[in-house]
Amino acid sequence: MPDPDLPPPSDPVVELYKQGVDRTLLRQNLRRSVDERILNLMDLQKLAEELRRAGQRSRERRQ
Amino acid sequence: MTDFKQLLHLLSASKIDFILVGGMAATVHGATRLTQDVDIVYSRAGTNLERLVAALAPYQPYLRGAPPGLPFRWDAETLERGLNFTLTTTLGDLDLLGEITGGGGYDDLVSRSSLIEVFGEACRCLDLPALIQGKRAAGRPRDLEALAELEALLEERRRLDSTDP
Q1: pTM of the complete model
Q2: How many other β-carbons are positioned within 10 Å of the β-carbon of residue B111?
Q3: Which residues in chain A have their CB less than 8 angstroms from residue B119's CB?
Q4: Which of A5, B32, B93, B128 has the most beta carbons within 10 angstroms of its beta carbon?
Q5: Chains A & B: contacts with CB separation below 8 Å
Q6: What is the pLDDT confidence band of residue B142, given thresholds at 50, 70 and 90?
Q7: Alpha carbon B77 to chain centroid distance?
Q8: Domains of chain B, with CATH numbers?
Q9: How far is the CA of A12 from the CAs of A19, A21, B4, B133, B159, in angstroms?
Q10: Which residues of A touch B (CB under 8 A)?
Q11: Which position has the higher pLDDT, A8 or B71?
Q12: Which residues in chain B (55-84) have CB-CB distances under 8 A to chain A?
């Protein structure tokens, strides 16, 4: 296995995807504690679930 | 929905030897992508299998996506016979991995993980470079965006480390 401390070799496809990464969100997250990151994930999961349910209700109303 | 906090607390408080990997490990390192389950690489030692079985038993572990009523027995023998288990539990989805592509099993990965404190309990989490290597080794097209985020995260962390007084 390669040395994990070495910078990873650059892959052109991944480099392209990296341009789409919102680094402001990463920096914001890096300022949070581990517990805060997990609680934030749980909030996001809750929001995603509520949106999914709202979409489902809306589709049912249209039928 | 997965109760990440409860699941992690349960695994850690039950003294199970495991390493957090996958999307949850990425979250711990600061990734922003939404994940739905908890992935762990668990030690295959007999006593650890017993601890896993005892800890999860009250939460009705069952094979995710399998039709109800299968003769699935949640015991150490079942764990011994298999390797990777994708489970549903009443606390949410949990993937028990005996090994991961490009990384191996628990004993191979321990040296590439760190002890972190999560909600007051100590827990092992795969280091970011190892997480990146695992994603690369898996070579799945659907992982490209996640891989890009992890690499960007590593760059950001190194930038922070180099500017720290």
Answers
A1: 0.90
A2: 9
A3: 35, 38
A4: B128
A5: 90
A6: confident
A7: 21
A8: 4-127 (3.30.460.40)
A9: 11, 15, 34, 16, 21
A10: 1-2, 4-5, 7-8, 11, 13-15, 17-18, 20-23, 25-27, 29-30, 32, 34-35, 37-39, 41-42, 44-46, 48-49
A11: B71
A12: none
CB contact under 8 A, A34 and B4: no
Q: Assign A8 a pLDDT band (cuts: 50, 70, 90).
A: low
- B110 compared with A1, residue with greater pLDDT: B110
Closest Cβ–Cβ partner in A4, A7, A44 for B127: A4
Residue B117: helix, strand or coil by DSSP? strand
Q: Phi, psi at residue B73, to the nearest 5°?
A: -105, 125
Rounded CA separation B18/B124 (Å): 7
